[in-house]
Amino acid sequence: MSERILVVEDDAVIRLTLKDALQRQGYRVDLAEDAAGGLEFFRRSGYDLTLLDLRLPDMNGLEVLRALREADADALVIVMTAFPEVRTAVSCVKAGAYDYLNKPFELDDLKEAVRRALETRRLRLEVERLRISAALPEPLEGMIGASPAFMALVEITRRLATAARVPVLIHGESGTGKERVAQAIHSLSARAAGPWVTLNCSALSEGLLESEMFGHEKGAFTDAKNAKRGLLELADGGTLFLDEIGDLSLALQPKLLRALETQSFRRVGGQKELTVDVRFVAATNRDLAAMVKAGTFREDLYYRLNVGSIDMPPLRARVEDIRALAGRFLGDAARLMNQPEPVLDASACVLLEHYAWPGNVRELRNVMERALILAQGGAILPVHLAKEIVASERDYNPTPDAGNASLAEIEKRHIRCVLNACRGNKSQAARVLGITRLTLRTKIAEYGWDEFVESAPTTANR
Ligand SMILES: Nc1ncnc2c1ncn2[C@@H]1O[C@H](COP(=O)(O)OP(=O)(O)OP(=O)(O)O)[C@@H](O)[C@H]1O
Ligand SMILES: [Mg+2]
């Protein structure tokens, strides 16, 4: 369905010119020649966008703007003013206008402003839809994503979660969500009611790590004034998460292997064999297979841990999820700061989708939190993003990791990249890609990219 625009403008020539230009773009347009008529139209049927002249015969434009926003707090309004006065523009934006145009304006500028505003509205609706869907079961314990790579991750995680005591090794770059997946494995398993215990293998010295993991008896070493239970005992009946397992020293590796194989161990300085029922989940961003070859990680431990194996996709391999993730992080941060949820402008979104995200989801979250503060309640724009994200637009390489991608995958990524770069303009994108518009439309439908599917033009307008 094409979008509906209301034009409130007392100058008949401008009014009809706008109607004509906008209808040619495929929008449905209604006209009002004064504030009273415009408000009546608006209250009766609501519009996706209102173009509002600030100088109307019967009412001050600012008042009309306020009345529109009162009727619909999300009303999207572009004001048109013949007085290129900064103050007027600022008060309009303060009163909730999305954008303003100084008369006389070029039709192209108008079309661009309209396109941008409606894109914002679509994003808002998308955020709204996400918020509604947040009440529904999320694919994986509050983790966000719908891309094929993410859904594959969900599938394997669910499957492994139900596989009782099978150890799981999670491998992936920093910030991809390894710990979240480990938690999901616990909470989706039959052990969910049991303890969830985590141990970071890189945070402690070898000696401390050993007594942390296995516990110690009184007098086991100088500082051991009392006996202490280790995390293995505390995790009995539940899950022990060993983070940064690649940093576990060669001396401790055989001790862990034995606990994995027999579910039994001794405290440091202890004689008694203790038995537990623990599921092991380990994570690392290091290449354990290479470490095995290099002799820094035991082969037997590696195979023992890697019975269930999960490879976390980096964020750049699931570009489709970026927008939803960014929206969620903005929303979360805004709520924490008691701010209204800001809009993520399409121009900023394109940059986010082009960036390589070496720090993955964590980096995206940090970037959005920072942007929220910089934007001070306004829409998130490119200026609110980190320099490297804006810079990456220029030398963006659509085929990172091309080494293991299929031709079809690279084609898909490249089409996405060009579409983004052309801000969704399909004629332009088709030209850049050297294919027909029809071919491009077929591809878009095939990939299910609904955001690029155009609304059917009404016959009267084309
Ligand atoms: N799919 C997702 N949806 C929502 N939030 C996510 C998702 N994936 C990761 N996060 C968030 O990103 C941050 C990083 O995730 P996590 O700590 O699990 O990553 P990690 O792979 O363990 O990183 P590191 O290797 O640095 O330890 C967390 O704040 C987490 O909540
Ligand atoms: Mg982690």
Write structural notes for this entry.
- With 462 residues, the protein is of the alpha/beta class.
- It folds into four domains: 4-133, Rossmann fold (3-Layer(aba) Sandwich); 148-311, Rossmann fold, CATH 3.40.50.300; 315-392, Helicase, Ruva Protein, domain 3 (Orthogonal Bundle), CATH 1.10.8.60; 402-461, Arc Repressor Mutant, subunit A.
- Helices cover 46% and strands 12% of the residues.
- It contains 19 helices and 14 strands.
- The strands form four sheets. A five-stranded parallel β-sheet has the order 2-1-3-4-5, with helices on both faces. A five-stranded parallel β-sheet has the order 7-10-13-6-14. The chain has a two-stranded antiparallel ribbon with strand order 8-9.
- Helix 4 links the parallel strand 4 (77-81) and strand 5.
- Helix 18 crosses helix 19 (437-447).
- The longest helix has 28 residues, at 107-134.
- The radius of gyration is 29 Å and the shape is elongated.
- Residues 394-399 and 456-462 have low confidence and may be disordered.
- The chain binds adenosine-5'-triphosphate (ATP) and magnesium ion.
- Adenosine-5'-triphosphate is lined by residues 143-145, 172, 174-180, 285, 325, 361-362, 365.
